[in-house]
Amino acid sequence: RRSSDLNRCRRRNPNKLVKIKTNIDVCSMCGHLKQKHVLCGFCYEKVLKETVKIKEQIRLKEGGHFNVATVETAVLYDGEKPTERDEGKRIIERNRKRPSWFALN
């Protein structure tokens, strides 16, 4: 059996302590802390919410999950007009300003 002294030493071993992270950075978009080379969790949450809303709008337009369109989708926000690149694409119109992180393709 191990003695209580040895157990205490094993419990308090410095190799078991939590390592200090030095790869923490500030997100350039929102200012929250994040790990370097990792997507900011706060920004990811915003992207996820916008994507869910776009998918919901597509589902309402197409009439369900099984009616999958074989064409590409273009998302247009307030004040945007379809271009010649958008010809033949499924157009989804959002009634809000384009988010800064959502690139105009």
Q: What would you note in describing this structure?
A:
The chain is of the alpha+beta class and 105 residues long. The chain has helices spanning 4-11, 41-62, and strands at 24-26, 33-35, 73-76, 90-93. The chain starts with a helix and ends in a 12-residue tail after the last strand. The mean pLDDT is 86.
- The parts where pLDDT drops under 50 for at least 5 residues are none
> What is the N-to-C succession of helices and strands?
HEEHEE
Biggest β-sheet: count, sense, barrel? 2 strands, antiparallel
> What is the beta-strand fraction?
5-15%
Topology (SSEs and partners):
Layout: H1 4-11, E1 24-26, E2 33-35, H2 41-62, E3 73-76, E4 90-93
Parallel strand pairs: 3-4
Antiparallel strand pairs: 1-2
Quick tags:
105 residues, alpha+beta, two-stranded antiparallel ribbon, two-stranded parallel sheet, 2 helices, 4 strands, 13% strand
